[in-house]
Amino acid sequence: MSDKNWLVFQLEELLAKVQPGEVRLHEFLRSPSLSCSVYHIPAGSKEMQSAHVEDELYLVLEGRGRLRVETDDHPVEKGTLLYVKAASEHTFFEVEEDLTVLAFFGSASSLKI
């Protein structure tokens, strides 16, 4: 983490950190109260998210698929903003077009992919 009170990120540079064709999570910010990542899920992948101890917010940058939270699911596409409450089981599935999302976690996350 920087000693500065603020940081600037360029979306193009963040997207370059995730390669097409593979499930990839690139964390670009971690502080005591917030973690942010770019998350890429190729079409046809079996993404196996699990519940996290933090609230999550996902912004879909590109692609199409579905997000299941507990027993409900919702279609996702570019521009969809999704909130997932802490400790809720969830997964992206039926990924029709490569999904790339910005993932914001309410506190520093220990996500491993």
Structure class: mainly beta
CATH superfamily of the domain at 28-105: Jelly Rolls
The average pLDDT is 88
The percent range for strand residues is over 45%
Task: Summarize the main sheet.
Answer: 6 strands, antiparallel
Q: Helix and strand string, N-terminal first?
A: HEEEEEE
Shape: globular
CATH architecture of the domain at 28-105: Sandwich
Query: How many helices does DSSP assign?
Result: 1
Helix content: under 10%
**How many individual β-strands?**
6
Rg: 14 Å
Give a nutshell description of this structure.
The chain is mainly β and 113 residues long.
Description:
This protein has 113 residues and is mainly beta. The chain has a domain at 28-105: Sandwich (Jelly Rolls), CATH 2.60.120.10. The protein has one helix at 11-15, and strands at residues 24-30, 35-41, 56-69, 72-77, 81-84, 90-105. Strands 1, 2, 3, 4, 5 and 6 form a 6-stranded antiparallel sheet that branches. A hairpin with a 2-residue loop joins β3 and β4. The two termini are 22 Å apart. The model has no long low-confidence stretch (mean pLDDT 88).
Strand and helix layout:
Blueprint: H1 11-15, E1 24-30, E2 35-41, E3 56-69, E4 72-77, E5 81-84, E6 90-105
Antiparallel strand pairs: 1-2, 2-6, 3-4, 3-5, 3-6
Descriptive terms for the model:
113 residues, mainly beta, Jelly Rolls, 6-stranded antiparallel β-sheet, globular
